[in-house]
Amino acid sequence: MKWVHKYGASFCLIILLLVVWEIGAELLDMGFILPTPTDVIMKIWDLKEPLFLEHLPATFLIIIIGLSLSIFFGVGLAIWMSVSSTVEKTLYPLIISSQTIPIIALAPIFVLWFGYSIWSKVVVTILITFFPITVNTYDGLKATSKEYKEMLLTMGASKKDIFFKLQIPGCVPYFLSGLKVAVTLSVIGAAIGEWIGAQAGLGYFSRRMMTQFDGAGVFAPIVILSLVGIGLFLIVTLIEKNMLKWRKTD
Questions:
Q1: Nearest 5 degrees, angle CA 230-CA 30-CA 15?
Q2: What is the pLDDT, as a whole number, of residue 104?
Q3: Does the N-terminal or the C-terminal CB of the chain have fewer CB atoms within 10 Å?
Q4: Cα separation of 36 and 22, whole Å?
């Protein structure tokens, strides 16, 4: 099968790393620091009800809300900057500067402002995910071919026609590329927010297990978070393939 030839080397490398991890952890024999992959899998199975029925939905809700708001504000801000040079010169440097501030340093401040409610975690997720969406969408809008734009103008097209029929379709690949980055970062943002202050969620569960020196318990929600990130990335990739069938890919 095609996917076997394409990703076979990656699967082999993952299996090799898991085997090395298993053997190394067995030799170290300090499960509270480095549990074996088998121990982690068993812990996930033993704690499947609280992990999948209580903590995963709490984290997933944060991811969905944070991503939705990032898309709304990120795309809106990108469009605003693309149509106004004044807005671009004013806000673009601030957007870049916002990424130089360690988000984990701001997370406790959001807990002070919003308490242990869901919104302190949502704000952290937004701050991490809006940057790739905004910048990629803005780059896509600005990458519109001048030749095509001039051709449409000579044919009597209005600015509205150019925006909806040329700029928007042209920026879709850029937006989806930014979204692929954002969905993986959203998992990190949710986990950071829950680690700092929460009453439920996979990040919160991992921190709680750390206080109990349960190495497998710490790794179990991390594995689930990783799978969630991979799943979201694959969903966006599938959407990208369906929306951009005209683009030739290997």
A1: 35
A2: 77
A3: C
A4: 5
Distance between terminal CA atoms of the chain?
15
How far is the C-alpha of 218 from the C-alpha of 116, rounded, in Å?
21
61 touches 119 (CB < 8 A) = no
Averages of pLDDT over runs of 10 residues in the chain (250 residues) are 66 87 84 86 91 92 95 93 88 85 79 82 91 93 77 75 80 92 93 84 89 88 93 92 69
pLDDT, position 30: 82
Q: What's the Rg (C-alpha) of the chain?
A: 22
Residue labelled with tokens 């318990």: 217
* Predicted pLDDT at 147: 74
- Please give the torsion angle defined by the CA atoms of residues 69, 70, 73 and 77, in that order, rounded to the nearest 10 degrees: 180
CA atoms within 13 A on the CB side of 86: 0
Amino acid at 1: M
Contact yes or no for 195/55 (Cβ under 8 A): no
The amino acid present at 146, given as its one-letter code, is K
Tokens of 217: 């318990």
Mark out the alpha helices in the chain (DSSP H runs). Answer: 2-28, 37-46, 48-49, 56-83, 85-98, 103-114, 118-142, 146-154, 159-162, 168-196, 202-211, 215-243
- Kindly write down the DSSP assignment for every residue of 58-74, as one continuous string: HHHHHHHHHHHHHHHHH
Token pair of 206 as six digits: 């991992």
Q: What is the pLDDT of residue 246?
A: 65
Would the pTM count as exceeding 0.85?
yes
